[in-house]
Amino acid sequence: MTQIMNTPRLKPPRREDGRIIIHFDYDCFYAQVIENQQPALKFLPLGIKQKSILATCNYVARRAGVNKLMGISDAKKVCPELILVDGEDLSAFRDVSKKMYRLLRSFSWNRKLERLGLDEYFMDVTDMVDYNVELLNRNALDQSFFCLSKDDPEQGFTYDASSVAGCVYGSTVSPGQDSTSHTQYLRLVAASHLARYTRMQIEEQGYTSAAGISTNKLLAKLVGNLHKPRNQTTLLAFTDEEVWSFMDTHQLRKIPGIGSRTTSILKSHLLPPPNLDSNDEDSPKEALTAYLVRTHPAVSPSSLERLLFAPGAERGLGEKTWSLLHGVDNSAVKPASDVPTQISIEDTYQGLDEPNEISTQLKLLSASLLRRMHIDLVEEGRWIAQPKTMRLTTRPYRRDKPYNWNRASRSVSLPGWACGLGIPNEDIALRLAEEVLLPMFRRLNPGPRGWQVGLLNVCVTNMIIVAGIGEGAGAGAGGAGRDIGDMFRRQEDVLREFTAYEEEVDDEERVAEDDGRGFPDEVTDDNASGKISLDRKEEGEGSDVEWEEDDHDGLETCTKCGHLIPSFALTAHERYHAMEP
Ligand code: TTP
Ligand code: MG
Questions:
Q1: Residue with the nearest Cα to atom 23 of ligand 1?
Q2: What is the pLDDT of residue 510?
C-alpha cells in the first residue's frame, strides 16, 4: 500500500545512492540442507525441529499451512504427514553456510561480502556494476554482456540491459534516456542480472534463494522479502519520496536496526492506549507503521533522541532511527573474512550440582569447541587464524529469572598447546577442560557445590590471523592478489571488526601472556567485580545499524516463549513474536 506523501516538516536525512547492494537469503535454509542430504524429502512436507518448536519448514509444508516457529503439536495438527528432522546440532548448517559464503565471495571484486546469521549475505557490487554500465552500448541494450573479470573479457554472461531481471518494486516504467535517473536505472538493472546469475550458480550447488537489490543494506534486505522463495526483487526508487513510500508500508518492528525497546517506547507515546474492553489486541500493533512515526507531528530526530534515551544507551539513536524511517542506511558492507569473530559452544542444564557432572560437561564442550575450531580455522593442515583468548560463562538455573540473570564470565589467554596440530584433539580437549576450564569454573563458582548450573558456554575469541594465510581461497574473478600490503590492510579490517564485537576481553593490555608453562594467567574476573557480563546485544539498540553477525552460535532461551533459539536467529525470532496476533 502506498501512502500519500506529506510535505516534510523537517529536513529529511540525506540519502546516498552511489552504492549498489544485493542481499541474498536462502530459502528455508535448514530444511534445504537436510533435503540435500536426503533428496527424497524435497517433495514431502519437512519440518526441522529444535526441542518443541519448528526452526523452519520447507515450502511443501508451508503450502500445507505449516509455518516457521510453529509448535510441533500445532504443526502436526495442521499437517499430520509432516516429517520431522532434529536440527539442534548446527554443524551441518554451519558447514553449508561456509561453503556458500565462499562461492559468493568468488564473484566479488572488492570482497565486500558480509554474512548475517547463517543464511543471509550482503554483497556490495558497486564496482562490478559501474564497470559494466560504463561498457554498455546504449543503442543495443538488449544485447549486453556482463563481465565478471576485468582481466578476462570473455568471463561473464549475456543479458538484456533494457529490463530488470526478476520482480520490481516501484516505478514500472523505465526512466527515459534523457532523464537523470537513467544511469541509476541501468545500474540497478545490471545488478539485478548479476543477482540472478549468482543465484543460478548457487542453485547448481543445490540451494535456492531470494535476493533484494537496492542502494543500501536496509533497502536491499527489505525489498528482497517481497518475493520469496526462489525469486528476487529490485527496488526502483529514484527520489526521496519513492524511497519513503516504500519504507512507509513497513511495520516499525520489521525494520532492521529498530529494536523492540524502540518500538515499545514509540508505541506507548504515539498510539492511543489499547482499548481494554476490546478483544482486538492486535489493532494498535498493526497501526504502528514507519509512515505513522515518520509523519507524526511530535516526531523529530531530537524528540526521538529524548524519548529513546536511557542510561548507557547509544548516543545518536534518535538520528539513526529517523534515518532508518526514511530508508537511509549508510552502514558499509563489511569485508569478507574467512575468520569468525569468535567461536562458542554452549549447553543449558536444569541445575548441575555435582563436580563430576561439571567436569563431564566441560570435557564435552571442550571437545565440540575444538572440533569447531578445526573446521573454521584450519585449512590445508594449517591454522588461518588462532584465538588468543578463552572465555567461560556460567549462570545458575532459575526458572523464574530472565535468561541472563547472574550470568558471569572469566577469560584467560588460550595456551599455545591448544592450537597444536598432530596431537589428537581428544587429548587437547581433555587438557583444556582440566587445566583451563575447570579452574575458571571454580573461580566463577566458589564453594564445594550448590551452584545449580543452568548454562555453560565455552568460547574462543581475539582471533589473530596467521600471516601469509589469512587471505583465503577464491579471490575469484578479478579478485585481490596476494599483495602483502593488501593483506595487512584486510587484517586490520578484520581485527577492527573483532574489537567491535568484544565487550569484555578486547582490551589487549588486560590480556596477560601465556606463561609458557601451559597454564594461562587470568585476565578478567567479571563476577568478582560484581559486574555481570552480557554476551548478547539488544538488537537495534547498539552502535550503528545492527547487522553484525554474532558468531556466538549457541542456543538462547526466548524470554517470550521459552524456546531455545540459535543466538543469531533470536532477533528474527523476536520479530515473529512481534507480528503474532
Ligand atoms: P530464516 O532465513 O529466517 O528462515 P528460512 O531460511 O528457514 O526461511 P525463508 O525461506 O523464509 O528465508 O532463518 C534461517 C535459518 O535460521 C532457518 O532455516 C532456521 C534458523 N532459525 C532458527 O533456528 N530459529 C529462528 O527463530 C529463526 C528465525 C531462524
Ligand atoms: Mg532464509
A1: 55
A2: 25
